[in-house]
Each structure stands twice: as C-alpha cells, then as structure tokens.
Design a protein that fits this description.
This protein has 372 residues and is an alpha/beta fold. The protein has helices spanning 3-18, 27-40, 98-114, 134-138, 140-144, 199-214, 253-274, 293-305, 324-327, 358-370; strands spanning 44-47, 52-56, 66-71, 121-126, 149-157, 164-166, 169-172, 174-183, 187-188, 221-230, 237-238, 241-250, 277-286, 289-291, 310-312, 332-340. Helix 3 (98-114) links the parallel strand 3 and strand 4.
Length: 372
C-alpha cells in the first residue's frame, strides 16, 4: 500500500482507539468509519441495525461476490499505557485490536478505489464480536447477496511480526458462558436448619465440572469456573441463593452442548434433592470456527506472491471467534497476522494494536479481492 494510504488508516486507527465503545454500543465508531469511507472512496455504504457494509461493484456480472469482515467493539479494560491517542473512555479500551481490523478494512477500500475488482466486493463492519452476537446479525447478508467466500484476519502475539499465521480445519473452538442459579431460603446463621442453603449443592457442581473433563472426548474440552457466589457474606445470615458461572469450550460444538446438558442435569438433581429452585442462562455463545481448505489455499498463495512469510499453527487458538457464523453460510477462512513473538498478549493492559502490521493485512486483503 502507498504511504499516503498508510498514514490515513493509521490516523483512523488512532481515532478509533481514542474513542472505544463496548459491544452493542458502537454508534460513534460506526459514524467515524462511515465518514471515512464517504470522504475517501466512492463505495456505497449501507446502514443496518448495529452494523453496516460497503460495496465496490465488480466489472464482471457472473463471478460470485467476495466479502471481508472487521469487528468494531472494544473491551471493559482500562487504558493502562501512556499513548498519545489513549482511550478517553473510562474503563474501556481497544485491548483486542478491533480498531486495527477496521482500519485495515478501510485500507482495502482505498485500494479498491484505485483498481476496480473483477467481482463485487463487500466490506462488513460488524459489532459485538466480543460477546458472540455480531456475526449472527450479519451472516444472512451472505446468502442474500449470493456471496461466494468471506475472509477476516486477527492480530496475534507470539508469532513473528508481519507473518501470516494460519491453521487448517478447526482454528478456534466453540464456547459459551453458562450461569447456574440455585434459590433456597435464607435464615439466621444460628439456625441454618430453618433455611435452605445452596452452598453444598454449588460445591458439588464445581466438583462435577472437574469430573466431566476426565471423561473421554473427541477433541479438546474445557470447563472453566469463572465465578462463584453464595449468599451475602454477612456472618449472621445463612445463604439462601447461590450462583456459579462457567465457560464451556470445545473443539466440537456437539461436545460443548453435551457438557452443558450434563451440568444442567446434575444441577437439577441437586436442586431436587436439596429443595432448591434451579435457573440457568447461556450467554456469549460462539460457534466453532473452521477454515475451508480452498479459501485457506488462496490466502497462502497470495502471501507467497507478496513474499510475506507464512507460519502454520500446530494447534488451535483456544480463544473463540464468532466468524464461524459466516462459514456456516458460505466458504471462508480467517488468518492471523503476527504482532511479534514477545508482543503483549491480547486482552491485557499492556496491549495496543501494532500499526506496523497494517500494510500486511491490507495487501493480503487486496490480493484476495483483486485476484481471480
């Protein structure tokens, strides 16, 4: 990409970083991105509920369109490093690099402005990736517009800066948040027999979650306790309510659902035995993300043509990604661009998107969009 375009999207990235917004609240972010596209390109911008897309018509009316996705949301993590473009929003910052993903997609828009593609290109700017709700809203567009393939990238530490990193088949697992609540009856701490305390049932559910992991599985499974709450903590009150939160994660969505049903079945039995009322809630649902071989081959060939080094991952990246909703509709692939082998990890206070990898992402996107 040329120097002028790099300066434009780097400045855009810094503007987005300064004004981060959480999932489902990305209104200002969308306005800044739409304003950039309208000022610097002739792409048609189409607004949807909580997201938008831009279109560059292709020269050919026969080839199926191609799509690219960027995510827009930030995280509830305070800005803890001194940046000239640091977040001005208390307790919120772009600690996953979605500001960089959006800037790179705008860089692709600038490239498409200079050279008309053979086939129509859709640029999808998606919200709510961090809570697993964004892609579900956008995925129907693929079927509606007859899109033939879709691509995305994520920045990733632990790999050489600027290298294209990829994995065949399953690249990121399915996951969900499971909240189990048990309601009994509060009583005075001196007369616990007068109430119904859920503490022992909650403890048994925690232990049962460990037993689930010991059973045979087709692939990697994890059941992580992320929070336990029982009662108020007041020394004069025997608890009447309790809650346990777990993150279920698996290579295969079916095994994740099996874990969920086993936990709920066990919890229901505990509730029945102890005289408790059971409630549960599933949130932050992410499908398994699997790359299509043909799409991944296009990525690798494009990287080789651009003399960008490639690194194949020997294991999946355990973090979940809602890009899998798109590949349930049409073929696609997600790849990663290395931030550096000792770069601060994602979702930590010391992280900031590495601007030096922007040209790599844009050039590879452009090669995919403009190639045959």
């Amino acid at each position: 990409m040329n120097t002028e375009h790099l300066h434009l999207i780097t400045d855009l990235r810094h503007t987005l970083h300064r004004c981060p917004e959480l999932s489902l609240a990305e209104r200002g972010t969308m306005e800044r991105l739409k304003g950039f596209l309208r000022e610097h390109t002739s792409l048609q911008v189409v607004e949807e509920d909580g997201w938008f897309y831009a279109v560059k018509p292709g020269r050919s009316g026969t080839a199926a369109p191609i799509a690219f996705r960027a995510d827009m949301d930030a995280l509830p993590i305070p800005e803890s490093i001194n940046l000239p473009y640091g977040s001005v929003c208390t307790g919120i910052s772009h600690k996953c690099g979605h500001d960089g993903h959006c800037a790179a997609l705008c860089g692709l828009a600038l490239a498409l402005e200079q050279r008309a593609p053979e086939r129509t290109v859709y640029l999808i700017f998606q919200g709510a990736e961090e809570i697993g709700q964004g892609a579900m809203r956008c995925a129907p567009l693929l079927r509606e517009k007859g899109i033939g393939e879709i691509y995305a990238f994520h920045n990733l530490g632990g790999y050489p800066e600027g290298a294209i990193v990829y994995r065949r088949g399953l690249t990121q697992p399915a996951s969900e948040g499971l909240t189990i609540s048990l309601h009994g009856r509060q009583s005075h701490a001196s007369a616990p027999e007068s109430g119904v305390n859920p503490a022992e049932a909650i403890a048994r559910i925690v232990l049962f979650s460990r037993e689930l992991l010991a059973a045979p599985h087709k692939g990697m499974v994890l059941c992580t306790v992320t929070g336990v709450r029982v009662g108020t903590g007041d020394f004069g009150i025997s608890a009447g309510d309790g809650e346990i939160r777990l993150t279920l994660r698996a290579e295969h969505e079916t095994e994740m659902h099996d874990m969920e049903q086993a936990l709920l079945g066990f919890a229901a039995q505990q509730a029945q035995d102890e005289g408790l009322v059971l409630e549960h809630h599933v949130s932050d649902y992410f499908p398994e993300t699997r790359n299509y071989d043909a799409c991944l081959e296009r990525i690798v060939r494009a990287a080789e043509d651009l003399a960008i080094p490639c690194r194949e991952m020997d294991r999946l990246w355990r973090a979940s990604e809602d890009f899998g909703h798109y590949t349930k509709v049409c073929p696609g692939a997600i790849f990663y661009v290395g931030n550096g082998e000792k770069y601060p990890p994602l979702h930590t206070g010391g992280y900031d998107f590495n601007d030096r990898i922007l040209p790599v992402a844009v050039d590879l996107f452009a090669a995919l969009a403009l190639g045959r």
